[in-house]
Every structure is written in structure tokens, then in C-alpha cells.
Amino acid sequence: MYSSLTSRLWGDIEDIFAAILEHPFVLGLTDGSLPKEKFRYFILQDARYLHSYARALSLVGGRAPTPADTALFAGRAARAVAVERTLHEGLLRDMGLHEEAVGETDLSPTTIAYTSYILCKVHGGSFADGLSAVLPCGWIYCEVGKAVSERGSPDPLYQRWIDTYGDEEFKEAVKNMLALTDRVGETLGSEELARVREHFITASRYEWMFWDAAWHEQRWPLPQAALVSR
Fold it and tell me: Domains along the chain?
């Protein structure tokens, strides 16, 4: 049924991806109805997330099977830090916020859970474990970018976000990552393949949860001051 590892992995998350495309946050991006405060929340959390994600990419790259593969991860990490950081800074500025707002933003429960999960698999598992944990972020964003690029957005702010994840350079980076995943997939035994699928599905669920957390502007159930005072 499946001709490659990536086709099998995508088959595992088709329902998750469909739910992402139909999420009110994503629909609001394309029809322009998304409230700005929800988008602001998303950008601030995404900026915090990317720091850990870039670190995870670098760590996975250090275990890559060839120097060319290591360079691939280094380039992806550099993009996460540079290109997407530039996007965030520009969007935040247009929303009346300064770069310092990122450092002043508390990590949401979902952001902490997602980044902790990725770093746990990168540190504690094999190269394939780490690869499968970091893969959903870029791949799903690329596919979301394709879908929302077809729709576009009447809001210039949202259209700028769409353009970033729908450009050819981003697509090429993801394509190279997928080719590496298929190459690695040919070497996996049944036990490691099962772990890879589990990590990929779990990280993909976190992708949906990240959109949902932004939609609900997720906060901790107890204020920090109440916890510190106990």
C-alpha cells in the first residue's frame, strides 16, 4: 500500500491534517476574520517555540548519517532562526509590539509540552527518533502553506504569513527533508519503525494543538503569583 516511509507517515495523519485545515484559526487566516489578538498570541508563542525547534534541528543534524545531511539540518535551523524570526519581528511591529515582547511572553502549556516532547526524543532516541519528531513542523506548515496560498487572504498581515510558508525555498527545504526520511526509512527495523510512526503522529497532534491553543489564547489555569507564594 505504501511505497515509502513518508507516504506511510502522511497516511497516518491525514485526519489530523484535515482537522488543521478546517480549524477556525486557519479558516480565519484565509477569510480575514481571525481576531488580531489571536494572531498576536500565535506569533508570540511561535517565536518562543522556534528557539527550541532550531536547537532540536541542530542536535538531530549532529547525528545525521552524512555531512550533506548535517548541512541540510544546519540550513533548516538557520532558516528557523533568521527567516522566520524576521517574519515575526515584522508582524509584531505592524501589530504595535516590539521584539522584547517575545521574551516577556510566558510559554503556554502547549508550547512547553510540544518543545519538551521534541527535545526529549532528540536527546534520548536515535537519529530516526529525532527526525520523526521534528519532521511534522516543517512538513505540515508547508502543506498548510500550499492550501492557504490557493485561498489567499484579504488581510495583508495574514497574507504575508501565508507567503512565507508558501514560497519555493521553503518547499525545497521540506522536499529535501522528506527525501532523507525515505532514505532512512529503508534502514529501519519493525520496532524502530513503530517508534518513528508514534513520534510523528504525536508531534502532528501537537501541531493541531498549537493552532488550537492560539485560537483559545490558552493560559495556565493558575496565575504564576499564586504558585510562587505557596
Answer: 5-218 (1.20.910.10)
